[in-house]
Amino acid sequence: MQIAVFSARPYDRRFLDEASAQQGAGQGHELVYFDAALDLHTAPLAQGCAAVCVFVNDRLDAPVLQALHAGGVRAVLLRCAGFNNVDVAEAQRLGLFVARVPAYSPEAVAEHALALVMTLNRHTHRAYNRVREGNFMLDGLLGRTLHGRTVGIVGTGKIGLATARIFRGMGCTVLGHDPYPSAAFADVGDSVALDELLARADIVSLHCPLTPDTHHLINDASLARMKPGAMLVNTSRGALVDTHAVIRALKSRRLGQLAIDVYEQESALFFQDLSGEIIDDEAFQRLMTFPNVLVTGHQGFFTVEALQEISAITLGNLADFAAGRDCANQVRAD
Questions:
Q1: By percentage, how much of the chain surpasses pLDDT 70?
Q2: Half-sphere exposure for 206 (CA within 13 Å, toward CB)
Q3: 294-327 tens-digit pLDDT
Q4: Which domain holds residue 275?
Q5: Which position among 59, 100, 264, 266 bears the catalytic label?
Q6: What is the rounded CA–CA span in Å between residue 174 and residue 167?
Q7: Mean pLDDT of the 261-290 span
Q8: How far apart (Å, rounded) are the C-alpha atoms in residues 219 and 244?
Q9: pLDDT above 50 (res 26)
């Protein structure tokens, strides 16, 4: 059985190959790697493959799924938790097996969220560049002590809970909001309505999935309800945030700081080297002009432990599909 792996970077190859070897090379599966992202133009690369293995910015809308199915593909293996890039209803209509990695090393993303907050709050990225140039002045590097501050966690699932525990351990007051609250969160912080969280939090950290209800959850109205000068952190999905609304809030000084590891239009930018190119995304370029904005390229998941777990679960989902077994990680429309 051949599996076409799209958006395959060297680390994907390394960890998938290692997981494949550990789970047994005699299973008859062959991983075929492609650097290209999956879309309608690249779907023919999967011709004759029984499954495709894809990542967050691969496109699996109805036309792509139909093209894959016509080429013999019968399974879609997501090596990520989110599946907003998949037309699940169309996949189900076509009889395609779709499975994801629902949870992997939540601490990896939680720790990256902390790294973003600490870097932006204490200006360590700017200090690093200054010192390399022989400038040891402290002007412009003034931060705030996090101990005693209020942190709002939007989405209290496994990653949100791990993030909440980190900030609680640092002496912060933790607030949480989730339409399906985690019972474990009660030991870490207080569950409140979203409006209350936005009004009270010095730092708002997003950890919720992208759904029609959460699309542009952070917009002009919600930004206006935030505490003036607060920090917004997004390590979840880019489209949770209306980029143009955030730019307006930064320009008006309503939003104090912004740290993002995801971006609404990231599929055209992230996971590739564009250092020699002109980036024509005007909203992204505008964000980069603000000294109080920090951007990383969707690396919150990027730890050895997380990649090992992602690869193992992905190949476990493949094994379930091949054996015709029920799969706990299968994604269905209903």
A1: 99
A2: 26
A3: 999 999 999 999 999 999 999 999 999 999 999 9
A4: 106-295
A5: 266
A6: 7
A7: 95
A8: 9
A9: no
Please check whether residues 119 and 213 belong to one and the same domain: yes
Beta-strand relationship, 75-78 and 30-33: unpaired
Q: How many domains does the chain have?
A: 2
Strand 203-206 to 150-154 pairing: parallel
Say yes or no: 162 and 143 in one domain.
yes
Annotate 81-100 with DSSP letters as a single string.
S--TTB-HHHHHHHT-EEE-
Residue 173, H or E segment:
strand 173-177
Determine the 3-state secondary structure of 188 from DSSP. Answer: coil
Q: Is the pLDDT of residue 25 over 60?
A: no
- In this prediction, residues 45-49 reach a mean pLDDT of 96
Whether 237 is a known active-site residue: answer: yes
Q: State whether residue 136 is helix, strand or coil.
A: coil
Question: Do 93 and 126 share a structural domain?
Answer: no
Q: Is the pLDDT of residue 24 over 70?
A: no
Catalytic residue among 79, 165, 200, 237: 237
CATH number, residue 136: 3.40.50.720
pLDDT in tens, 27-39: 678 999 999 999 9
